[in-house]
Design a protein that fits this description.
Elements: H1 3-20, E1 37-43, H2 47-62, E2 66-73, H3 76-82, E3 88-92, H4 105-112, E4 117-120, H5 127-135, E5 141-144, E6 155-157, H6 165-178
Parallel strand pairs: 1-2, 1-4, 2-3, 4-5, 5-6
Helix pairs in contact: 1-5
Length: 183
């Protein structure tokens, strides 16, 4: 990474942390039994991620949980391809500022939703997706262990040995079925 790129990342991270302080968020633990509304963020540039996110969303909907999904794609042609998918919104690299912050209306609306649970299904670091995690008002945020995201999640799932999305989703389902909500 170049010197200028490192400076850009530091400026963006500092700016994001300031913006996060303005987010009205009430932290509340929920599991899959107590959640009514769930948000799923994923990187649709990886085809398997789209398929896995869609399957996970369908599973949650069968449990009478409302689901909203947001996927990141590389270009507007991909948005057109995915636009037939009900319940999923997408944004592309063209919807991102110079600091890699998303600026689309779909992202803004997604961040403002009061999800009971928020699942970040991205497996690698992305400042663009980090922005969405940080700005989300969700009550309980779950993500895979990534050093750059340690302060962004309420529950971190470590999948270092097997970083694939299906294994990660299995772990989410496991932990959220084992952990009970205090009554």
């Amino acid at each position: 990474m170049s010197f200028l790129e490192n400076i850009k990342i530091k400026i963006a991270t500092s700016s994001l942390e300031k913006k996060m302080k303005t987010v009205a968020r009430r932290k509340v633990f929920n599991n899959l039994e107590s959640a009514n509304f769930v948000g799923i963020l994923f990187d649709a540039t990886i085809q398997n991620s789209y398929i896995s996110a869609r399957s996970f969303a369908t599973l949650l909907e069968k449990q009478n949980i409302r689901v909203a999904c947001l996927g990141f794609v590389l270009n507007n042609e991909a948005i057109t391809y995915f636009s037939e998918t009900k319940g999923m919104d997408f944004f592309s690299i063209k919807d991102v500022t110079r600091l890699n912050f998303p600026k689309s209306e779909a992202v803004k609306e997604f961040c403002e939703k009061d999800f009971d649970l928020f699942f970040d299904l991205s497996l690698k670091h992305s400042l663009t997706l980090k922005y969405i995690v940080g700005m989300s008002r969700a009550g309980f945020k779950i993500g895979i262990s990534k050093p750059e995201f340690q302060n962004y999640y309420d529950l971190i799932i470590n999948c270092q040995d097997d970083k694939n999305i299906d294994f990660y989703i299995q772990q989410i389902k496991h932990y959220l079925s084992v952990i009970k909500v205090a009554s």
